[in-house]
Amino acid sequence: MNDIINVQNAVQVERTAEEKKEIAALKTHLYEELKNEKTHGEALETCRTKIGIFLNDVQDKKVWKDWGYKSYGDFLESIAPMVEKGRTSLYNYAGVAKQLLPYIPPEELPEVGITKARALATAVKKNNGKRPSDTLLNAAKSPAISVEEMHQLIQDNFGAREEADNGPWRNLHGAYMTDDEWTEFMDCVKRTCTVDPSFSYIVTDWADATPNQRKEIIWRWIATFLSEYGPNDAADEVFGK
User: If you compute the radius of gyration of the chain from its CA atoms, what whole number of angstroms results?
Assistant: First the structure.
């Protein structure tokens, strides 16, 4: 028998008993992973991929209505404080899942990890949803393939490299930052884009920038620093190398 669930603003959702049970389980699993993300209680690579899978279900099945929200965006706003970088991260995780779930089963995607999954999802989106090759799918699921190797395989097997992308993929890794530090970092990124001669773009989200945009920004920092303090030979003199 179907039940009618009344939620705020008179939104009505018709669900079977089995669907209600699945939705309750989805909510439990999602909030468990959100807690893990906040406390780093689970490997973040796996945790963030799971969050993306669950959010993809929330959006596709419109279960935010069952939970009393006016929109999917309102639901994300309510859970944004539970993750680093808030809504930006949530949209990113969900977007990765949306691109890859047609090709990698939900039970296998978490083991790919969010970094490799994001790289592959970006390539899929750029190629209008084209299915990745078996080589790429197997590489994504293989723990023996590093992030650097994954990027290189994507460039070689998926045509994801842009004309301006020269040389092999170099992984600069990351760093832990407080909210204030991240805000200052992004202020610097945006200012770098607008300094004369300004770039033709302004990066407002580091994760969404193209590889070439990130390279141009970093290269401007390097050029500025070296012009002020000199190249390596000056450092060699200081440290006696």
Answer: 21
Structure confidence by residue, pLDDT tens digits, 106-134? 999 999 999 899 989 988 988 888 898 89
11 touches 64 (CB < 8 A): no
Do 65 and 36 fall into the same domain? yes
The three-state secondary structure class of 241 is coil
Of all helices (H) and strands (E), which one includes residue 16?
A: strand 12-16
Residues facing 13 on adjacent strands: 5
Q: Which whole number is the average pLDDT over 3-24?
A: 68
- 65 falls in which pLDDT band (50, 70, 90)? very high
Residue type, 204: T
Where a domain ends, among 158, 191, 219?
A: 158
Q: Give start and end residues of each alpha helix (H) in the chain.
A: 17-39, 44-60, 72-79, 86-100, 109-112, 114-126, 134-141, 147-158, 179-194, 211-229, 232-239
The model carries a pTM of: 0.67
The Cα 233–Cα 241 span in angstroms is 9
The structural domain count of the chain equals 2
Token code pair at residue 83: 């993750």
Q: Measured between alpha carbons, how far is 178 from 17 in angstroms, rounded to an integer? A: 44
In a domain, 226, yes or no: yes
Name the residue with tokens 């945006």: 190
Q: What is the structure's pLDDT at 234?
A: 57
Domain co-membership, 53 together with 85: yes
Q: Which residues contact 118 (CB under 8 A, 6 or more apart)?
A: 92, 96, 207
> Is 189 in the same domain as 100?
no
